[in-house]
Design brief:
Helix content: under 10%
Shape: globular
CATH topology: Jelly Rolls
Number of helices: 1
Oligomer: single chain
CATH architecture: Sandwich
Largest sheet: 8 strands, antiparallel
Number of strands: 17
Distance between the termini: 18 Å
């Protein structure tokens, strides 16, 4: 499968062929293996040691998520930890460079209203599934649309206590936009990574791995 970066190389190489600069970066290249899934970074499959608070009426958490090779996106899975009752979330995947404003990946978004009786995994299909996403580092934002606080399981990074930041949070008063300012009003979170998983299609199947 041939892919091509959708944004300009952040590196100026002065024409050096041994450095991946604008010319090499923007050339189509072959990905021979598809990613079955991608996790928030840094996160392991079994990490679920604590939970993050998503404030009511727009509480949002943004976390970096690394996609190692082409991903045919089907859905997002996250672990919801309460409270009991109806929940209402939306999500969106963003990409960009270093100017502080990210752009939404077309079709890589979704929403879900569900009822919770305990800790459960929730899966939300991408609105444009299947969505072909190139390898790279992205930001995934999950937003609580209900009027009360909610909680999502994450990883308590006890061995990294004191590191500057892993994710960031903010109350967004309206729906996740197509262009998102990632600088103004965000609070950096230092030890807890939310448990987000982008679910991909592999082996020619029409459902997520």
């Amino acid at each position: 499968m041939s892919t091509k970066h959708a944004f300009t190389s952040p590196i100026t190489d002065g024409g050096d062929p041994d450095i991946v600069g604008p010319d090499e970066w923007n050339e189509p290249h072959e990905d021979t293996t598809l990613a079955p899934y991608a996790l928030t970074h840094p996160l392991g499959v079994d990490d679920q040691g604590t939970s993050l608070t998503f404030l009511g009426n727009g509480g949002s958490v943004a976390a970096p998520i690394y996609i190692p090779t082409t991903l045919i996106l089907q859905s997002l899975t996250f672990r919801q930890a309460g409270p009991t009752g109806d929940q209402d979330f939306e999500w969106r995947l963003y990409e960009g460079t270093n100017d502080g404003t990210l752009s939404a990946v077309t079709g890589a978004d979704g929403s879900l209203v569900f009822n919770v009786t305990g800790n459960t995994f929730q899966t939300i299909d991408a609105s444009g599934a299947p969505v072909i996403i190139q390898s790279g580092m992205y930001w995934l934002v999950l937003r609580n649309r209900r009027g009360v606080d909610a909680f999502v399981n994450g990883r308590q990074v006890t061995v990294l206590a004191g590191i500057p930041s892993i994710s960031q949070s903010k109350t967004l008063g309206s729906a996740l936009p197509s262009s998102l300012d990632m600088v103004t009003g965000w609070t950096k979170q230092s030890q807890t990574t939310p448990w987000y998983r982008l679910d991909g299609r592999v082996f020619g199947q029409s459902t997520a791995f």
